[in-house]
Specification:
Residues 4-59 form the Phage shock protein PspC N-terminal domain. The protein starts with 15 loop residues before the first helix and ends in an 11-residue tail after the last helix. The protein is built from 3 helices and no strands. The chain has helices spanning 16-24, 28-38, 45-55. It has 66 residues and is mainly alpha-helical. The model has no long low-confidence stretch (mean pLDDT 86).
Length: 66
């Protein structure tokens, strides 16, 4: 299993959708569309995106094992 990290290339805004797309084996565009559609539903999607942006390390930075 690969570590979840925000890519340095091919990302928009924070790279969260690109990281999730890589992890689940889909395209970044598909993940972005799904995120935008999920924003039409009630829930904390935007806050979750911000949290992942803060918590996920950028690709190439040192990662610590928990």
């Amino acid at each position: 299993m690969t570590a979840l990290a925000r890519p340095t290339h091919g990302r928009m805004i924070g790279g969260v959708c690109a990281a999730l797309a890589r992890r689940f084996g889909t395209s970044a565009t598909t993940m972005r569309v799904l995120f935008l559609l999920s924003c039409l539903l009630p829930g904390p999607q935007f806050l979750l995106y911000i949290a992942l942006w803060i918590l996920l390390p950028a690709e190439g930075k040192s990662q610590t094992a928990w």
